[in-house]
Amino acid sequence: MIVSRAPVRFSLGGGGTDLPSYCRDHGGFLVAAAIDKFIFVCVAKRFYENLRLAYSKTEVVDSVDKVEHPIFRAALRLTKLEKGLELHSLADVPANSGLGSSSSFTVALLNGLHAFKRESVPAAQLAEEACQIEIDQLKEPIGKQDQYIAAFGGISALTFHPDGRVDVERVPMKEEIIDALESNLLIFYSGVERPASVVLSEQGKTITENKDGALARMHRIKELGYETRRILMSGNLDAYGELLHEHWTNKRKLASKMTDSAIDEHYDEARKAGALGGKLMGAGGGGFFMFYTRPADKRRVYETLLSRGLRPLRFHFDFDGARIAANFLRSS
Description:
The chain is of the alpha+beta class. It has 11 helices and 12 strands. About 40% of the residues lie in helices and about 25% in strands. The radius of gyration is 20 Å and the shape is globular.
């Protein structure tokens, strides 16, 4: 049996500039961070020649063509493993929560299937194969951020070229700055799950048609990505909190379902309690909030959000990326 895992992520700055509707014409840049919340996939040889898949439901099928789950089906075809397997997936976080869990699942699944074939696959190949499945085959309206950060891990700057190439650079940060950033970020679950495709499809159309100055907002969000990298390297973290607020102010106007009155109230109350800035992770519309607070204000912001029924998420940054957590294959 193989146990494969891949981390989910926070987008720290520049998020959304990897969307094809923007980066295929203008290029994109963002900073993302993998965290120690994982999607796990177990791959085991099955006694029978059929396939058994266990996720939120269970499938037992005679051929890969009968697999209902689109990512399982595509990954099995890509790796040419089409019978005699048992696959299980587990997650530390809920689906549709803005942390890129779908892409992390795809990366973990591919890594596990390759390992089952005794193939060692580099992070860049895992990321591109995941993009091939999600974007090219399944036509998801997403960018390449999630696949690359799940594969590479760390706090990384990602450059998205119009021709589809992606450059990955680990942001050079002092350990004490990494520790301070972890401490000053508060993550809370809104309790709302939503398919990212609903928001991203509208956002892509808004960008393509340049409604209400959408392109200018996206250009500014990309600049904020570069500023995020500079701030993290310099260690001036309070400036990052203020940058987060500007990022959310621009992002929330790109799609009608990006926010609602309840989300706005949560955000405003956190700011009143002392948060310098914040945003919803991922496409928006629900999922997890991220707020930046000064140490002196952290407890007040924490208790304010807790009193509003939001659930905190403790985390550390993850620097391993996709990896095989256990390999019980016999050498014979």
